[in-house]
Each structure stands twice: as C-alpha cells, then as structure tokens.
Specification:
The complex is a heterodimer of chains A (241) and B (407). Chain A is an alpha/beta fold. Chain A has a single domain, classed as P-loop containing nucleotide triphosphate hydrolases (Rossmann fold), CATH 3.40.50.300. In chain A, strand 1 and strand 2 form a beta hairpin. Chain A is globular and about 45 Å long. Chain B folds into 2 domains: 184 residues, no CATH class; 194 residues, no CATH class. A 6-stranded mixed beta barrel of chain B has the order 5-6-11-8-10-9. Chain B has a two-stranded antiparallel ribbon with strand order 2-3. The radius of gyration of chain B is 33 Å and the shape is elongated. The two termini of chain B are 26 Å apart. Classes of the chains: A alpha/beta (241), B alpha+beta (407). Chains A and B meet through helix 2 and helix 3 of A and helix 1, helix 10, helix 11 and helix 13 of B.
Chain lengths: 241, 407
C-alpha cells in the first residue's frame, strides 16, 4: 500500500495572503500528485502562483485551505521544528539565484544542510566531496562563489540540494540566470539525476525547459489549467532557443 | 545544531570582519579592563593596610601626646612631649591587663657602614617595644639591661637597613656602624615585618636621648614621644584603654572638665575603618566601570541588529536548508557570546597589564585575584546573553520566504 502512496499530494490547496488588509489569492484550489521518480515542470507566467506552490511543497509555507501531504502525512500537522528538520533531510532546494553563502567556499556550502541533520564535520565534508563529484565540481571545492561562473555556482547549489539524499529536489527557475548553453547543461544534469531515480520538480516560465520534462503542470492566475504527460521527450537540439 | 557548531559558525562570521568585530567588543574590553584594574588597585590597597595592621601587632594601644595648655591657651596636639618613662612604668605596674609597654622617641638620621650609607628612622626605645609588636630577631639579641640603663652604644637593625648596609653573606652582628658620628655595635637584626616597617634602626632609649635626639625633648630628659602597650586579650582592649586614660589623667594632674593631654588609640581598629572606606570607594569605582559594560552591551546589540538585517538572506537560506528557528537563534546568540567572551578575555589581559603598569609607575601595591577576573568574565557572558538575545530572537522569527526574497 505504501509503495503506491504518492510522494507529494496536493488536495484542494489554496493560499491567500493578506497584506495591508487586501487579500490576494496566489494559489486557488489546486490538486495533483507527484510520484516517486517523476520529473515535473511547473509552468506558468510570472504571478501565476508557481513560487507559492513550490514554497508549500518545500514545507516553507502552509496552505490556507486544503492540504499538502508528504508521504501521506499532512504537513500542517507537523510542528514547525520538525518541518525544518524535514527540509534538511527530505527537500533539496535549487534557486534561480543559486543562494550560496558568499563567505563560505563551495564544499562548505554543499555541506551546510548536514549541519542541521547533526552530521559531524568530517562526515559532512566527505559527503560534500562525493556530492560535488556527482555534479562534476570537485575541482572547485575550495573556491568561493564569487570565483565561480553562474553555471558552476548552480552546479554547486545542485550538489548542496542532493547532499542529504532528499526525497525531492525543488528547482525554482534553475536556468533563469544562465545563458542558454549553460542552461542546457544544467537541464541535462537534472535529466541525468532523474534517470537515477531522483524525483524533481522544476518551476519555469520557459516552454523550452518544460519540453524536457516528461510531465508539465500549468498554472494560470493561481489555478491549475493543465497537467500533461508526454510519451517521448524531445531530442536535446530542439530545446536550444 | 550543537553549541559547538554555533561557536564555529560565529567565529567564522566574526573573522570575516575583524575590525568591526573588534570595535564592537571594545566597550566590553574597556569595561572589563577597568573592573579588573579597579579591583587590583583596591585589593592592593587593602593588602597594604592589612600588612600595616599586622605589623603593629595584635591588641596594641598607642598613646601619643595630646594638646598641652600654657596659661589657658590650647597648643597643637603633640606640641609638647607630655608622656614620660615613668608613665610607662606606671602603666606596666598598675594596669594588670598590660603585658608589655615601651616608650619611644624617633628621628631621622644617616647610618654609615664602611663605604655605604643609608637614611632611615632612628627609634630610641626599650626591649619592651619588640615584645609589644611581637617582633622577632632574625639574628643577634635585644638590648641588655645595662645597655638600656647606661646608654650603650648598640643598635638593632631593621631588615631593609641591614640589607642596604651589608653585602649578602656579610654578618652584621658585631659590626661597627656610625650614626651622627657616634660609633655603634650592631647587636641584632630583626625579622621582616613589611616594606614600610623594616626601614628602621633601633637604639636604646637612653642612647637616643643622650647622643642623638636629646634636644627634641622639650620638657625633661624623662619624656618620650609615644608609648605603645600590649593588652593581654582582645576582650580587654576597652577596659585597658579607660584604665590607662584615668591613670594618666591622674598622673598628669589634668583638672576635671579639661581634655586629656594625651590620646589613647587603637591603630588596628582605625585602620580597619580605613579599610572599610577603601572597599566602599572600590565598589563605587566598579559600579562606574560596570556602566561601560552596559554601554558595551548596547553597542553589541546595535551591531547584532544591523548584522541580522544585513544577513537576512543568509538566514533565509539557512532556514530553507533545514535550520530550525532555535538553530538561527543559537547562531546569533553564539556570535554575541563570542564577542563578549573575546572582549572579556582581552579586557582581563588589558586590566592585568594596566594594573601592573600602575603598580610600577605609581609605586602602589596591586593584587589581581581570580575572583575579580571570574566576576568580570561572568559579567561579560551575562552581557552577551542579555544583549544578544533580542537580535538573535529577531533573526529566528524571520519568515524564511520573506528572508529569501531580500537582496
């Protein structure tokens, strides 16, 4: 039974923000499941609620209505501290602007989530090396973010997202700040990770990226307007824009 | 996240901006340094007093001349030597609580031994003086009865004088020295009693009067400058004091209603009172120094608040990567603590250096005790916790989503 359980389930999820007395509904009545091993693109123009959705899947935010389930557990029932710990162990974030700590070198950045998993320094650095190796960045382990190119920084960020062997990698516009060639390389890296079984949810407004994911969820004005599965992923050259 | 990791992160963050970190902790450095210095000077002063109290001896009363009257005119205290050797005898014989007593006259003179010379206090007294003050000999002997009665040309040296006049390993006993051209034989060297006490040479009272200080006696050859007397037990001090007072009034024929022409003092008690005053002043100074700790704490809070604002994005990243609220709080609290502890440690070092410099330059005795250092460090830890808590709490309450949006 548990094998059939989806990794992530959203049931009638809405999220309303109240700023200065004005209520803004960013996400409205969205339901879908993500299974283990999927690679999903969440598409939509800016302001369509993609980031809000990602914050809820990533346990950073809670729905105002409806429920988000992680491996069958309603995340609203998990206490704040426990949710933070779950983020360290189960969620790997990749941001558009990399979000590496500027004053720490690559390997320390990669090891950071393990600090919050209670892993000792030696083990942290050993695992960070392995993770850097997996994204081909071991040779830059002791470089600081400012000494790395955008593509290299994003690879380090992906190594950081992977270090705790998370259930799911959440990537918010991971190629948004990169040139198309570097972006393609990063997407290839995600595709390869997915082939090894890593569940990935990628948020993008770029249709070219979505074509490289098997499944695409489309949002518009906070509502779910499409959920398609492609049988065949287009060959690499068609993504170049 | 553990405390240790918190400190590691804090040290890393503080190392990135050493000048700012140092300026931030400067208030604590100054506060702790001044507390340590004030403590050192204050307890040094107390030590010096305690040493003086010890050097006088336990249960000692000191009788000095008071005001004399000449035709109804009150003269200055001590302007006439109203005490006599027969007063000493009377006190010894008629007051049972008195164990020992001695009269003294004193002046300053140069002592010459071979090529060396030394200026010091010459005290003319009797062997009773050493009994009253519990002052043992390091070597040699006290004055003999014949010497006391017959103005013997002998001298007993304080340890400082012996050290200054004689080379180490040179036995002073039997040596000839000269005071105001009068040759004297050294018969004894006293034990050490304290730097202020050891710089003295004793001669028999009769010798002093006859050969050196006789002209100082402006009443008669029987008079002495002061008397010291030892009371047998602590509880008898007050009784002995009033007996001495009535005995001397009677002997000096002081009419009823007129004030005494002498004063009986308990020097140890007076010094203890002085010690209390020193303690009060030291506490006041510590209180003032604590204000700078307070100011230091406020400056740490100020910088920490700025730092939290500057590092909002870092906080967002750490929260997204799994940092709990309490991990963030611990991180910033550790930074404040490290600042305060480091500041405290530098302050202790600066305080020790400062008080040692003061000791050397001003010639004061300073004493650095572990208690003062512990207190100063405890203060700085408390400052870190109190003033670091608010910024740390503020940091931990930031919403990770909002924090990630800031540039």
């Amino acid at each position: 039974m548990s094998a059939a359980l989806p990794l992530i389930s959203l049931r009638s999820v809405s999220r309303t923000y109240r700023t200065d007395g004005v209520a803004v509904t960013a996400v409205r009545n969205v339901s879908f499941d993500i299974a283990q091993g999927e690679i999903v693109a969440v598409m939509g123009p800016s302001g369509s609620g993609k980031s809000t959705l990602m914050n809820m899947i990533g346990l950073l935010d809670l729905p105002s209505d409806g429920a988000v389930y992680l491996e069958g557990a309603n995340v609203a029932d998990i206490p704040e501290d426990r949710r933070s710990s779950l983020r360290a162990r189960s969620i790997g974030f990749v941001f558009q602007s990399y979000n590496l700590l500027a004053r720490h070198n690559a390997i320390e950045n990669v090891a950071l989530p393990l600090v919050y998993c209670g892993v000792g320094r030696k083990a942290r650095l050993a695992r960070a090396e392995a993770s850097l190796q997996a994204v081909g960045m071991l040779h830059r382990a002791h470089h600081f973010p400012r000494q790395l190119s955008g593509g290299e920084q994003q690879r380090v960020a992906i190594a950081r997202a992977l270090i705790a062997s998370p259930l799911i990698v959440l990537a918010d516009e991971p190629t948004g700040a990169l040139d198309s060639r570097t972006g393609t390389e990063i997407l290839a890296l995600f595709a390869e990770l997915n082939r090894t079984g890593q569940t990935i949810v990628m948020i993008t407004h770029d249709p070219a990226i979505a074509t490289r994911c098997r499944r695409t969820i489309r949002l518009h004005d906070g509502e779910l307007v499409g959920d398609e599965v492609q049988d065949r992923i287009l060959p690499k050259r068609s993504t170049a824009s | 996240m553990t405390m240790l990791q918190g400190f590691q992160i804090a040290l890393h963050a503080l190392r990135l901006n050493p000048l700012r970190s140092f300026l931030t902790m400067l208030g604590i450095v100054i506060g702790v340094a001044s507390i340590v210095t004030v403590f050192a000077i204050g307890s040094g002063a107390q030590l010096r007093l305690q040493e003086q109290i010890r050097s006088i001896g336990a249960n000692v009363l000191m009788i000095t001349p008071g005001a004399a009257y000449q035709g109804g005119v009150r003269l200055k205290d001590g302007s006439k030597l109203t005490m006599t050797e027969s007063d000493v005898q009377a006190i010894l014989e008629q007051i049972p609580e008195i164990q020992a007593a001695a009269g003294s006259i004193a002046g300053t003179a140069q002592i010459i031994h071979e090529s060396k010379n030394w200026n010091t206090t010459i005290n003319g007294t009797t062997t009773g003086h050493f009994m009253v003050r519990d002052w043992q000999l390091a070597t040699g002997r006290y004055f003999s009865g014949t010497e006391e009665a017959g103005a013997g040309k002998v001298v007993i040296l304080g340890s400082t004088v012996a050290r200054e006049l004689f080379a180490p390993g040179d036995d002073p006993i039997g040596a000839q020295i000269r005071i105001m051209k009068v040759p004297l034989e050294v018969v004894g060297v006293l034990d050490r009693k304290g730097p202020a006490q050891d710089d003295v040479a004793f001669v028999p009272l009769s010798t002093a009067k006859l050969r050196f200080l006789g002209s100082a006696s402006n009443i008669n050859r029987d008079s002495v400058a002061y008397i010291i007397a030892k009371v047998a037990a602590d509880g008898q001090m007050a009784g002995a004091r009033s007996e001495i007072e009535s005995l001397l009034r009677q002997r000096h024929r002081v009419p009823a209603g007129q004030e005494d022409d002498f004063k009986v003092q308990d020097p140890a008690a007076a010094m203890e009172a002085q010690q209390g005053a020193i303690r009060t002043v030291a506490l006041l100074l510590v209180a003032i120094a604590s204000v700078s700790l307070l100011v230091g704490g406020i400056s740490i809070m100020n910088v920490m608040i700025v730092s939290v604002t500057e590092r909002t994005r870092e906080i967002g990243i750490r929260r997204a990567l799994g940092g709990r609220m309490r991990d963030i709080r611990l991180q910033f609290l550790c930074e404040a603590l490290v600042l305060c502890l480091l500041g405290g440690a530098i302050g202790v070092a600066a305080g020790i250096t400062l008080s040692m410099t003061v000791a050397r330059m001003a010639g004061w005795i300073t004493s650095i005790d572990g208690e003062a250092i512990g207190l100063a460090l405890a203060f700085s830890i408390a400052t870190g916790l109190i003033f670091g808590f608010y910024p740390a709490h503020k940091a931990s309450r930031l919403s990770p989503i909002e924090a990630l949006k800031t540039e």
